[in-house]
Amino acid sequence: MSNNIEDDIENRETLLKVKNLSKIYGNEKKEALKLKKSGLTKDEVYAKTKTTIALWEVSLEVKKKEIFVIIGLSGSGKSTLVRCFNMLNKPTSGNILYEEKDISKYNKNELMEYRRNKISMVFQNFGLMSHRDVIGNVEYGLEIKGMSKEERHKKAKEMISMVGLEGVENKPINNLSGGMKQRVGIARALANDPEILLMDEPFSALDPLVRKDMQFELLTIHRKLDKTIIFITHDINEAFKIGDRVAIMKDGELIQVDTPEKMTSNPKNDYVKQFIDSADKTQVISVKNVMITPNSLVRLRDNPQIAIKVMRESGVSSAYVIADKTKFQGVITLDDALRAQRESLRLSDILIRDIKTTSPDTLLTDIITDATEARFPLAVVDDENNLKGIISKVHVLSSM
Prior knowledge:
Layout: H1 3-11, E1 14-25, H2 29-37, H3 42-49, E2 52-63, E3 67-71, H4 78-84, E4 93-98, E5 101-102, H5 108-117, E6 119-122, H6 134-138, H7 140-144, H8 149-162, H9 178-191, E7 196-200, H10 208-225, E8 228-233, H11 236-242, E9 245-250, E10 253-258, H12 260-265, H13 270-277, E11 297-299, H14 304-314, E12 318-322, E13 328-333, H15 334-343, H16 347-350, E14 357-358, H17 368-373, E15 378-381, E16 387-391, H18 393-399
Parallel strand pairs: 3-8, 3-9, 6-7, 7-8, 11-12, 14-15
Antiparallel strand pairs: 1-2, 1-4, 4-5, 9-10, 12-13, 15-16
Helix pairs in contact: 2-3, 8-9, 14-15
């Protein structure tokens, strides 16, 4: 993620704000609170009171239109937290503010309105109705809202098409694969046009290949619809792949919230570091973190003698060629420059133009094949084709 994107998210309006949120299960809540405040761990509190501190003093902000990922091991509190966002779990203490209004203080009608129109949820086990076909499941929420049959049918078909299930509208749910069922769940959640989409480990029951497809599908849908997505997972690679920002939880407490790149470079403590050490770094690190400045750089207007001198001084056999204002043109080799000198050719006559390029914000995982197969290190260029650096197979592999 580029600094510009990080700044953009930071400057966005806060949509959901969580302040000092705690959730406690059991009969000895007051005693559990007292013991926890005295410094005991979650397990120590439970041993003394048989009371579970599922969440403890969690504070965070979710920005508009971001994918905010919450990650943690089993028992970390991530699913408990996400269910507080739609009040399936009522917090013991603390506040959840949606557009600056505390949802825990909503009356019955306000909560119903919030759940129907502002927030939707996609579950791990799909949560579909087996007695309805695909379109019947997708339009269910619209039916509850009282939308006319024709209208809800049209909206449901749009969502079915968006998730790649066009043509299976009338299939029974039980005839679908796991990946297709999850697509139906996403389509149903999106049909209500919610501001926030909650996703509680939605892909964990899918096989690895289908899971990768669904991750890509989610990013595509997010790009099209610009929804705010709060995504729960226990997989650090999944978190870093799809998350604009990632929150790590442990024993009901929030440990760190950051972008994948910042979390990788500055883990808050050893627990976060252990989590990150298990991640595939190529899915976190961008090209800009690894690229280098080319040793040998010449301008298109230079003559072959200058190019030969630059390459010999740098001890290399090729050079990257730019026009005025650093616009990338291509690569020349020392052999070709020597031939150009003999035959009175210009650099443009010997320029190799079909050079692979990439952008500074591309993840390393997306260029491994190109970097491995390319004859020359990849040229790193910005949106206006200005040369920013180069990256070779050696740089990619060493970063792994």
